Amino acid sequence: MSDSPSNPPASGPNGASAPNGDAAMSAAARAALSSPAAPLLARAAQLHQAGDLPAAVQTYRQAIVVDPSFAEAHHNLGAALRAWGKRNEAIASYREALRLSPDYALAHVNLGGALAENGELDDALEHLATGYLLAPERPVMARRLVNILRRTAPASVPAKVREALARLVRDPAVEPQTLEPCIVALLVEDPRVRGVLEALAGGEAPTIGEAGPPLYAALAESELPSLLGEAILTDSRVEALFAVLRAAWLEALDGGHAELLPEPGLLAALGLQLETVEWSWLETESEQARLAALKERLAEPAARVEEAAPSAALLVYALYRPLEAFAGDEALLALVDPEGGAAAQLLYRHLVEPAERARFAEAMPSTTPIRDRTSQSVRAMYEVNAYPRWRRIARRPGRKVERLLPELLPDLRRFQVPFDQQRVRILVAGCGTGRHACLTAQRFAFSQVVAVDLSRRSLSYAAQRARDLKLANLHFLQGDILELGGLGEEFDVVECSGVLHHLASPELGWRTLRGLLAPGGLMRIALYSESARQGVEEARRLIGELGLEPTPDGIRQARAAIQALPPEAPARLLAESPDFFSLSGCRDLFFHVREDRFTLPRIARALDELKLDFLGFELPSEGIRYSYRRRFPADPQQRDLARWAEFEQENPLTFAAMYQFWCQAKE
Ligand SMILES: C[S@@+](CC[C@H](N)C(=O)[O-])C[C@H]1O[C@@H](n2cnc3c(N)ncnc32)[C@H](O)[C@@H]1O
Questions:
Q1: Is the pLDDT of residue 463 over 60?
Q2: What is the pTM of this model?
């Protein structure tokens, strides 16, 4: 990733904003205004923005000759050198900028980026963390730090990075799920945790009397408890560790050894996680027997609240089952607080949210009949397993369409649309539980979003989250895509992600949506790739052989069977997908009632028939784009589907996160 000069204009080739003009203007930027070399810096920045790197470098150097103490000129020289491929010289320039101005946030972040490219990750993280802590209000700082954190599994972490992590988990501009890999990686490297994991892997089961206290201390010192309520744990080892602890706590309670339990905050945080994943962890028969006894005990109201807090018995029960049966308990309801600590939030999720969702579901307006047989069975499935499970998205300001699209598709330059960007009409078709619809309503400025789905249960979850996010420009309706032609409305943007392949005829659904698109309107489509879904095929065979049903127990057993496969089995890879960790995710992943898959030639045919121009793929990592560029330098715009088909043949898992692409109506 290249970075930008920090003197005009305010944003560089990669969209990174510069400090100038920000409320928190850096010392370097302030100094720049009074430097005798300021005019040279401005000239150099213009050349830099125009892509004339040799001239920009030369002009920055002239500025430095005029004013050697000009930190911003050293920084911008670093940016230009880095863009030119002269990374080591760039690093030296950034370091000089920081020597002159140690609190120069952008220089820390850009130095961090260059060091990461050099493989110097520890040093990189330290600078990225410092930059973020100096200017946490600027989204680019968090984004760059998280990008490196999610790619690394640091064995040890300097204090600065720990401080930044503690802030990141509470930062509304950061997607909690992006922090999960790093926080888990740090936890499992803690010797107090590693020892227990090794013992478990070796078939030993350490007692909680011995292993508990150091483990609880390690957990309390990590950021994991804060994350457990907002992100899904996607590490099988850590899940297995918590499953062992859960069983041990239940046993301790049963045996009258409540002193072996951790503090209530940890129990409640783990309870939030289990509610999020819908209690997807396997249970043994002895756990089920103890649970039945615990349920009897909790029938007595006094057993549920102790010293004006939920009892340990109740919190352990919530690790296995919903507490809905106690929704009428006034003493518990008095402890509910959605903004409170983990226990108060847990009670809110168990006692208040389900009833509220039921009301939302009942009041949800219906916009079309649902007559198609496949639509009916797909609806029935999602009425049981609303998907996906999520709690929070990163808060970011909305952007105009012409600004947003090139951010999503970096090879799309100078993009224009014929519709009014001050009033963008958007349809999200098959919105599920609304995560994507909420992102859309937030990221498109001046938008009015209508989101449609078959499943009232999913829609009620979506409406609840949208209400929490205070998104007033998003409205939900129940309906079938196949029937939307009669809506009599036109949209500037239609998004349909992970939906069409569940229709009896995906192309028919696609054509219906195309009919709703305004001239020059945009579509974002996501479809399963045949070659990336081989693991799913194997999992479905295995489930069939085992005779497992899509019930909570059947799904738990299917998860265990997949986890037990050898690492080289294609289905084993599913255990690395976030969907694998919740019941509804698993239902969607390998227990679906209807799944079609696409190839790129099939997509190319549909685009042609529907008179849609392909604009480009959204890809989960820049690495894919980079590899494609190296493989097919003759397609700099990365829009040639025949070449992408060749690329996918050589790299069959390229589209494991689906073919996600944008296209535009030709007329
Ligand atoms: C895999 S989920 C995807 C949800 C959401 N788009 C996302 O990306 O998170 C598929 C959703 O499509 C909905 N769906 C499937 N067929 C549909 C149809 N014919 N009309 C409307 N919604 C449909 C399902 O009810 C389900 O909620």
A1: yes
A2: 0.90
